[in-house]
Amino acid sequence: MIAYTSRRQEIISAIAAEACRRPLLDSGLWFHDDVRNNFYYASYLFAAAADDARELPLGREEARQKAEAVLLETVLLQNRRPGTALYGHWPLSLSPVPREAAPHELPVEIMGSLMVWFCKRYSAQFSAGLRVAFHTALGHIYRSGFFRKQVAEFSHHEAKYTAAKLIFGRLFGDEELLEDGRHSLEITLAHIRTKGMPEYGSLPWFWHWVQAFTCAWELEEDSDTKRLLGEMLDFLWTERSRWYLRGAWAGAHSRGWPHDVPADGNLLHDYVQFGDFALPAAMPRTEYAGFLFYEAPEQARHTAVNRDSPVEVRATTEKVIAGSQVRQPALHSYAYICRDYAAGGMWERVEEFDNEQLRWSFSLPVGAAEGVNRLYFFHPGQGYSAGDPRHQSRYMEVLYHRNTIMSLFPVPEDETAAVTGVLPLGQWIRQPQALFGYAGGVYFAVYLMHGYSLLERPDYLEIVCEGKGGGAVVEALSATQAEALGISGPQAFAAAAAQRAPVFADGNVLSAGYESWLSGDRLELRAAGPGEAQAQIYGKPVSFDEYSV
Question: How deeply is 416 buried, as exposed, middle or buried, from its count of CB atoms within 10 A (0-12, 13-18, 19+)?
Answer without folding.
Answer: exposed
